[in-house]
Amino acid sequence: MAPPKPAASRPDSTRTGPGRVLIAVYAIFALSASARAGVQIATKFGHAPVAYLLSAFAAVVYILATVTLAVGSPAARRIAVVSCSVELVGVLAVGTWSIADPATFPDATVWSGYGSGYGFVPLVLPVLGLLWLRRWTRRPGGSLGPEQINRDDDVA
Amino acid sequence: MVAGMLMAIGFLSFTQEDPTRAEKESLKMPCPSESVTTKRSTMSPVNGVVPTTIIAAGLALAGYALLMTALNRRMGAGLLAALGVLEILLLVLVGIIVARLAGGPRPAGLATLIGYLIAMPLVPVIAGFWGALERSRWGPAVIAVAGLVAAVLMIRLHEIWPAIRV
Q1: Of A40, A75, A122, B50, which sits most exposed with the smallest number of CB within 10 A?
Q2: Which residues of A touch B149 (CB under 8 A)?
Q3: How far is CA B79 from its chain centroid?
């Protein structure tokens, strides 16, 4: 028996509704972070190797989040949760590291200063991504994965 | 509406700026047959009016689009038309910068600048398609992102190449 189709106004995938905006912002960061990291590593890698490698890592995480949010299948959603979590940990860790040890970062990364060079969007984005993924799994019409069972607390 | 009015103001300031500039150049140029664009590209940095207009237009578009989201409206012809205006402005700027690059001076980050010149005009196009796919209030919100990105790109352009004035 097929589950009933959700109403037209209700998002039927992580790529619709607010997810549409989220993917747009993720795509911009995926593009800008990978282009920036590519140029930096190709032209002046020795100048700030740690910063540039972290930029490249951030780029990979952004690309992964963009693609998995856009695909929106249950498996893709699980990968999206992982990449958004890695992203949140990354921005917090690199943000703290860049303030504690500025010498390692002669050139900024996307996550330096908790994303202060990008209007703190890199800090807000993974939080919104995780909230969206969490909220979406709870919607009727979405296939509820095993992660649903472990979540008794209601935040959204 | 608001976006349209602000853009009109932007255009007005553009047209007002031009005669004074032309007058200055005519004073400097004894020979009127000499190309104005060549003269300008060697005399002054990239005209700051277009980037400033793009910032104003981008922010106005973002405000207009977010208003549509707040009012629970879907994508409409008005938003797509405003997006089209932003696209034309960005293409004009790309043309100006390419002409400036052809004139000789190069920024330190030439590769980055060329990347921006390619990516910049794609922003409204991709946002238009991605937003039009959405049949809810979140379609206009995608357009708002494009408007904000266009404004931020102008600041970045200035950082890449200070000759591009904002």
Answers
A1: A75
A2: 28
A3: 17
